[in-house]
């Protein structure tokens, strides 16, 4: 065992030292939430058997003559693996605390499996018996699979990566074996895995888990393998997820800085990487790829910057050790700007000028650092100011990314020496015109997380720094787009308008309020709950579209929150205008000029329009069921046709009336005609900035994100509409639902009405009637669909809007 725990000898069993500190990780919250969602969805169909259960059971029965022996072996192997990890914890020095973790997880999983089974109709005695049984009867949830999964997942952060993967494989194989042996069905096996993961996540949140960092002895061994023998190694605080920093002294006395991306680091696993990419690492959602590619990327960009004359820390070695840990070794800095801030006189004008020369030279070479803060601006041992840590750097970077580097440097130096000195140094390096180009990036959203945190403790504000820079540049401060506020009065007007719209739509649809009320009372509310839980997925796809529409460095989570905030602002602004207005304000907070921000917003909206029109054309030309295909008939067919004609007539009248009012009312006509020259002049004046934004259309990945995000949003909306229709007893082909949702979204988005209120309800009712849905069900479906996708989302949209304002994203 000693060899197995040694620094690189034989096989590494444990991911970290026995006394490694534990912490509670957001990734466990993510796993817990995902598991609970899976259990909630499975609960709607449990205990089965469903069509999927039958299909899987039939397949495994067909394989029984060949693989029947495997089911017993795999089911036993699942238990053996759990026993092995228990023995490992019991026999390894300093690991006995892990026994408590496994016991807690096992108890939670057993309770969860029994409780989930009881909710689905399985009695507790059957759930308890399934813990020791290896065959029929079929039980939902598979208790043994749930308990053993919880034990293996709980110990997973403590184990090296190969053993984690082996454990996951055994869990999957054991779940399949449970189905093959008749101990559970597909729903029961999937529910068992979800229950086990949820129990392990709760255990980790309560008791903590290690990060999987390398020990000092393991780093020493890895350095020897890379040809860098050392005399001393000590751990340093990590700056970001997935990496570990060490200070080392080479045998020749040189001080070294060692960055390690550990093979077993928990933050480098799939879920940890996802969470870090979405919320922490850099200013955009991205994955760097393998550990090898990350260290090679950083080494290459460091050498490229040095070749351009930028002072950097010399690269000593880069590579991957035998156990799979990636290391980047550089000379150690003498001090960082963060350390020098304690004595401002240590940061003289010469150092400020040297830092500005380095960043300007980096930008002139087409490289953006992407993560400038006071911890990465350093003094080398020879006294030269330098840049370090090029992990987030990009070659051939856009002008905006390079200008963002300069904005971050201005704020970072202001934190060290104050706004006046930092602005003077910027003017000396860039000149007034160059400083003016940096002004749009003096926004909290354009700064790094660490810099934003440091700003909160200063006696001066970022606004004061911006005003000082504006005065030094001799220009006017860039203005932000104004947003209309949602007030109690606007909500009241919306509520009254919605009530009137529903009365009018119900009347014109030929369905009395009593029949609509009866349809609502007969609704299957569990499916309406599913529709409500599924509706936020629409914003998840919209966020992907927004990320694709811009070349700016954005993180996914703030963009996702932005989409929820759009749901809130849409209460007072028409849907398309609300999305454009809030996105422009959001982009401006990242230093993007107004013209470019507007273009990004327009590109996003236009891509959605293209997807909507394409869907309509595909359905119309492919022969899929559309408005001409009726799935139901009956006594209401004639009345539905009459009411459909009435609703269609109303929609046409509304559109024509809007155009007539705009043309005949002098005040409105003058306002429109006056705006045309202003818009033309603005387009001409800011055309260059707008054209630069169109570069996003030349990037296949960006274009795919835009179109894919909008397509996904439309399909999920159609799915939610179908769930609402099914809950009320109606049915329609999915292509019909897509056609209805797309046509109504396209039409209502063009109407100057907040949220398309009234127009959308009439459109959904008309569309559903056009495919043969009875009037009462059509009106009821329109009501509940709009409730879960428009009238309720502003509740959490208000929270999202407050979050964006608190973090100064809008």
Automatic annotation (TrEMBL):
It is found in: Cell membrane. It is a multi-pass membrane protein. Keywords: Cell membrane, Membrane, Transmembrane, Transmembrane helix. It comes from the Bacteria. This is Lysylphosphatidylglycerol synthase transmembrane domain-containing protein. The keyword Kinase does not apply. Its main location: membrane. The lineage of its organism: Bacteria, Bacillati, Actinomycetota, Actinomycetes, Micrococcales. It holds the Pfam family LPG_synthase_TM. It comes from Cellulomonas alba. PANTHER family: UPF0104 MEMBRANE PROTEIN MJ1595. The chain crosses the membrane at residues 29-49, 69-91, 103-122, 128-153, 165-183, 491-511, 523-544, 556-580, 610-627, 647-665, 734-751, 783-804.
